[in-house]
Every structure is written in C-alpha cells, then in structure tokens.
Input
Amino acid sequence: MAGPRRFPSIKRALFYIHQDLRTVIEGSNWWLEYGELSDLEILVLLLEDRRFFRHRGVDWLSVLRELFKCLTLRRHGGASTIDMQFVRTKTGFKERTLRRKAYEMLLAYFLQYRLGKLAILRNYLSIVYLGWGIKGIDQAASAVYGKSTWNLDREQLAAIAAMMVYPLPKSPTEQWQEKVAKRAAYGLELFTRHSGRYKQSFE
Output
C-alpha cells in the first residue's frame, strides 16, 4: 500500500479506517501486555518515545516542538511515537506528506482501544526494521552478536536500540559503528538516570 486512502465520503472513510486498523491489529499478540519491562524495552523508550505511557498514540508536545522547529527553519523530525511507527510498519505507508502523517496519527489513536501499550511496544519490536534483511530485535541480536536478546549485556542491548535510528547496512562501515556506539552510549546514560521510573510503574 503506497499511502493512506482518499476518503470520498464519511461512511467510506469509516470503512477504510476500520479496514486499515484491522491490518495493523492482524497478527498482533494481545497477551504481550503482561510482564515487566525489559532493559531493552526501557532503552528503546528512552531513545525513541519517553512519554510512551503518557500519550494516546500521539505525543502532542513533540508535535508542537517539531512544528516550531519547522516554522523557525531549524532541522526537525517527524514527531513519530512508537504507536505511529507500528502503524506505519504494519500498513506499509511510505508517502511523506502531511495527509499521510495525519492519517497515521488517527490510526495510532484508535489503536489504543484495541491493544494495550505494552502489547503495542512488544509487537512493534518484533517486526521493526533494523537493517539489511533484519526485522525485529531477535533477528538483530542474532545477526550482530550471534545470540538471543536474553543473552545480551546492557551495552549490547543499547546498540540494538540504537539501530532503530541507524539500521545495519549490507556492508557495515566504521562510520556506521561510530554512530551506533554514540547513540548507544547516550541511551545508557539515560538508562542510568531514568530507568527507575519505568520499573517503579510495574512494581
């Protein structure tokens, strides 16, 4: 699917929203909602979406921040949440337009009523693109370290989390390794300072 559908009517719009939401939900495991956060999951949240448990699919603070950067001609990002990235991955939306972004936000919001936050996070991590021929954290751990994620130390887990921004290229370079190492170090610094608040919420 190249991009979100064009809506000719309200009735058809609701039908397409329902259909695309089913595409997102299909194959997802709702029971992944249970259990404590792992170190890798905390690292991902710290690097990608720190307010994940406080928003409903769209982080409006990030949206306003990036909009301000855009209006002041500064480098800006897309303000995507984990929920929005999950929607984009499952639907295959590639179009880089405001219309596509708005529709992605809408689906991410409705997704909250179908899956719990932990289930969204864990289902996304099972399919996220992390490099050449790699989908999901387990494949990444095997490709980079020859181990399962359960057998990685925290530094290695931070590197896997960093690959969400710097996916493994077909031919890894020293420059790529440096970028991953720098972002992983930043993640570990955040983990030392902030991981407690994520763990306390599950005690």
In short: The chain has one domain: 10-200. The chain is about 55% helix and 0% strand. Residues 10-200 form a domain with the Penicillin binding protein transpeptidase fold fold (CATH 1.10.3810.10).
